[in-house]
Backbone:
């Protein structure tokens, strides 16, 4: 794994949060199928202009989106997935080997990893770029890894207010749990890129051209049977719950599951993901 200057995020994603994502990878991949399809459509647009090339997936997690992109674009393209989480990269490599997919997965902090210069024709990310402690440095590093004229397409969460499903656990658990950390606007984390103007400034300051941010939303689902594990393992609430004794943890989880009831219908959980589509292009020579 390459060195990271973002020690808090490295510890988080190589510890409990990384393990939670590994354990819930099937649910999470199912949840975010519409987001993956969106990025596949953007990738196909690029492939129509660049029939063969190299793609980098930033914050690739356990590799679901990277592997879907590989299937969609085919053998004319080469694929690399990068993530700060070594446990998730281990799973991604196993999945690629099982699928016999020609994808390279690297455990790396995309802010500091020394990618080959001017290597990638397309850089994508599904909810993986909000965690850098110095986002300008990170996107400058990615821009240096992009070939002249290469495209960037990334999805990031909009505000907590626009994503009520994603805040159910925190709102419900706040009066029940001590030590639940407050969200800090703009800090590395899920909603770190909620401010459209700030994100646009980050991309421009890091040297990208043709920057646009478009509000998009996706209707997402997963099985109701997976809700308890989702509610109890993921996010800031999951981190606090992991430190509790079972007799203290289970009543809180019961309350969380009940709080998600408005989103449950016919055995499935339904919610809207409100995101920014961040698009840009590396400067042409």
Residues:
């Amino acid at each position: 794994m390459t060195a990271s200057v973002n020690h808090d995020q490295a510890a988080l994603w190589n510890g409990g949060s990384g393990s939670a994502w590994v354990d819930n990878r099937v649910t999470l991949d199912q949840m975010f199928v519409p987001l993956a399809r969106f990025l596949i459509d953007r990738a196909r647009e690029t492939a129509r202009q660049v029939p063969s090339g190299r793609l980098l997936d930033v914050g690739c997690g356990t590799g679901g989106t990277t592997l879907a992109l590989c299937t969609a674009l085919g053998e004319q393209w080469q694929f690399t997935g990068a993530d700060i989480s070594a446990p998730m990269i281990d799973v991604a490599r196993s999945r690629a080997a099982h699928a016999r997919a020609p994808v390279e997965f690297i455990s790396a902090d995309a802010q500091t990893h020394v990618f080959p210069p001017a290597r990638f024709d397309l850089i994508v990310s599904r909810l993986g770029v909000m965690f850098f402690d110095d986002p300008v440095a990170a996107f400058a590093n990615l821009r240096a890894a992009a070939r002249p004229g290469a495209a960037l397409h990334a999805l990031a969460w909009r505000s907590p207010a626009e994503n009520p499903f994603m805040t159910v656990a925190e709102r419900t658990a706040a009066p029940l749990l001590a030590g639940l950390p407050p969200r800090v606007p703009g800090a590395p984390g899920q909603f770190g890129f909620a401010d459209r103007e700030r994100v646009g400034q980050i991309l421009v300051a890091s040297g990208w051209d043709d920057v646009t941010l478009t509000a998009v939303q996706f209707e997402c689902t997963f099985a109701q049977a997976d809700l308890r594990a989702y509610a109890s393992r993921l996010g800031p609430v999951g981190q606090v719950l992991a430190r509790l004794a079972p007799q203290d943890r289970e009543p809180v989880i019961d309350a969380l599951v009940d709080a998600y009831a408005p989103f449950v219908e016919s055995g499935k959980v339904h919610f809207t993901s409100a995101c920014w589509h961040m698009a840009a292009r590396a400067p042409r020579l």
